[in-house]
# Entry
Amino acid sequence: MDYKLHIAQKLKIEGVSSDEIYQALSLPPNSEMGDYALPCFKFAKVLRMSPVVIAEKLAASFETDETVSNVSSINGYVNFKVNKTSLAAGVIGKILDEGEKYGSSDIGAGKTICIDYSSVNIAKPFHIGHLSTTVIGGSLYKIFKFLGYNVVGINHLGDYGTQFGKLIAAYKHWGDKDEVQKGGIHAINDLYVRFNNEADAEMEKEAREYFRLIECGDKEANELFDWFKQLTLDYVKTIYEKLDITFDSYAGERFYTDKMQPVIEELQDKGLLTESEGAKIVDLEKYGMPPCLILRSDGASLYATRDLAAAVYRKKTYDFYKCLYVVAYQQNLHFKQVFKVLELMGKEWAKDLVHVAYGMVSLEDGAMSTRKGKVVWLEDVISKCVEKAYQIINEKNETLENKKEIADIVGVGAVIFGALYNSKIKDIVFSYDKVLSFEGETSVYVQYTCARANSVLIKSGSEWIFPEGYTPNALESEVIKVLETFPATVSAAADKYEPSYIARYAVDLAQKFNKFYIDCKILTAEGDSKNFRLALTAATLRTLKNALKLLGIGVPEKM
# Structure
């Protein structure tokens, strides 16, 4: 039973829907006040009375039942106490029955959500700046799947532009096929860097010619380009596998080469395209934005041109309910312009395009680069986290089996969680020591809690039966109340495009469980108390696993 929903549906507030009431219900800071609280401040304007009076009237009119045993009001809040016996049986029973599906729903059935994320550049390795788009998009992919949506993960590859002419020119001058094949993406990146450092005017001319040949379909130029692209994908897929990231499409910028012209013609036909200093633009001054550049004076397309074509193609191909772009906040203006142009074109679905903006990632020294100016590669960050995780685990439990496999799960999880714990828009300062701490707000702490719960269940050594009619104590009730909010937390994370809601939920649940674990006997308890506490432990373990899975984080059985 969803106890918040039960309360929300019984409350009647003029001009306010049950869903709004449901979203407003929260856990009070002091559990003695109640199990759920409804702040009435946001209803004051609608009802034209003070929050205190609203709370008093709602409390007086609410009829208690076998689910809600007591209702009171204080300082503009309505506090609800539920029947703890009923709550415990309902929540734990639901979790144990639903297992891996606990927290899921079919609310998205029949709806498609496209998520454009990670979007790597051909011939360039992942650096730490790619972490956020990759893990935020990856988590949203899992969250929306969990809620029943058909999700299309799109890697909008950066595979178009004169830089690829430069790469071919560099390869022609300095490259060796066997060395490049062996060195992979780092070898081709080195060639690109060398070109930028050493190229003269003649080589720059060669580069422009090679890019022209790619566009014209030249066999040799495209074979080289496709080889560089495959080397890139082979590399990034190893990173994606580590991070549990899934894509359904790798259609990048180049894919839209033949799809831009119809969009340009439509802009022209609708009188939206004007000329400015030889370039073609859509004037957005009246909307408080600079013009959206569609074609340069030399006729070349731009990011906006290709993004317009991509949006039209995605709507036609997938008929999406929403299309999300997980891209850094520096591109806020770009997406506002693209979305506005589509709206001006009469695309009613432009309102369904969402820029999921996020902050930047830096290391503790405040930089994303080393003192030599080289980029900090994401693979190196992951490797260092795994290595440090192994050292910590070895120090804590030298006799632990499969330490390397466990360190891999812990280290990779720490990297993901470090990027997902705070609100996505916040800039992140990545600290190896902080993300690998066994104490505090980390995935390691949550994983260790899971290992602790798993150990208890293994040691119990026998089947246990959930005791009917058991009334939990205060600490047990605290865990149950957090367990009950997991489905609502998943829904809120989807509504706000915020995986951090789930990350913070996992830490909160782990903290509540560990307080219960320390203060309440489990294995040495007797009768109904033992059975109930084992059931509570199993429900907590299941819910924590579900939460971490939605973030892309694994759970070792032992630590």
